[in-house]
Amino acid sequence: MNSKKYIVQMIEEEDFGCEGQPDGYVKKDLVILEDEEENARMLRIEDQELYAKNINEGDAVFITEDNKLMKWSDKSSEDAHAHVESAVFMNMCMVCDGDRVLALDKVSSNYSGTTFPGGHVEPGESFEASVIREVYEETGLTIRNPQFRGIYHWYRDGIHQIGLMYKAAEFEGTLKSSEEGNVYWISREAYEKKNLARGMRDVLCMMDNENITEFFEGMNP
User: Fold this and answer.
1) Whether this model's pTM surpasses 0.70
2) Cβ contact 139:68 at 8 Å
3) Whole-angstrom Cα distance, residue 175 to residue 126?
C-alpha cells in the first residue's frame, strides 16, 4: 500500500460541452494531488467514487494498492484490513502413560498415517476445552491439565492452518476407537518406527524439547 499522504488540490470535472455525456460513459474527474514535499500527482477517478467517499478539494487522502483514492482518516481501518487473514485452528495431544503414548492410525483422504488424537477448534470454544473434547471424542479418555507445547502451522489454499500442540499425562475413562481411526497404547520407541503421518517427527521434537515451541512448514507445502 502507498502510505504517502496527499492533499487534494483540485478536482476538475469533464466537460462534454453542448453534446452532453454519451450514453453508457463512466464519468471520470481529473484529481490533482500534492504530497508533503509539494510534488504533484494527477489521477483520473470516477466521479461517483469521489461522491461516495465524500472526497473534496482540500481533503487529505492516500492511494491504495489498486489505485483507489481513500480519505486519510480511513487509513487506520484500511491498514487493519490489510493485516487480516483467514485462519483455521486445530489441536493435537500426546497422551502419555509412563513410557507409552496413545497412538491414532488416522483414516482420512487428505491426512493418513500414525498420529496423535486431535481436531478442529469450534467457534466460541477455548483452545484447552477444544483439545479435551477432541481427545475424548477420538479415544474415550478425558484428559486433565493438558500442557501447551507449541504451534505447528502452514498455509493451504491461502488459509493459515494453525495446529496447537499439547501434552497430557493425566486422564480417566475407557479407551475406545472412533471413526477417525484405531487408537491404542504403544511404547514411544515402537511409535517412532510406525508409518507416521506428515509432520509427526517434527511434532515429536517439539514434545521432547522445551526450547522448541514452533514449526512452520512454509507456503503451500
Assistant:
1) no
2) no
3) 24
